[in-house]
Structure formats: structure tokens, C-alpha cells
């Protein structure tokens, strides 16, 4: 989860919340992140996401940004260090 100092956890001036938008263009394709919207409620966020992305989507998912765990940069670098210590024969991480 996001830390307490994460800007996604701090209320916006108007009380709005950031929502992440994921879509699937065709049923055989995976969901992919396409952007975010800012809205005070799930209903308004749904309306905004639908207006912006429905034309391209067979499925549209919406979730609060502060409920999404984002990995990148240092998070992935740490993961790489753990994997680099794996046993070369078995591939099992060594502790």
C-alpha cells in the first residue's frame, strides 16, 4: 500500500480522489492501464472514465489510486537483487 506521506493518500483541495483506469480493447487481450481520473466519488469517476475511454474498450475497470500497489524504480531494483542471488542450478532464491 501507499505510505502515509504518499500524495495519493492526501485529500485534494476539493475532496476528490484519484482513480486508475484500466481497459481491454478486445476480449482476447489483457487489461492495460490507460490513465487516471480525479473525482470525488466512484460514480463520477465512472462517468469520466467512460467518457474518455469507452470508445476504445470492450471492458473498463476503475479503482482508487491509493488502493493500487505500484512497483517501479527501487522496488524492481530490489527484486532484481533478490533474483540475482538465486542458485544458478535450481533458480531458487537463496536467503
From TrEMBL:
Q: Which Pfam families match?
A: PaaB (PF06243)
**NCBIfam families assigned to the protein according to its UniProt record, in alphabetical order:** Htur_1727_fam (TIGR04031)
Under what name is this protein listed?
Htur_1727 family rSAM-partnered candidate RiPP
Which species is this record about? Haloferax larsenii
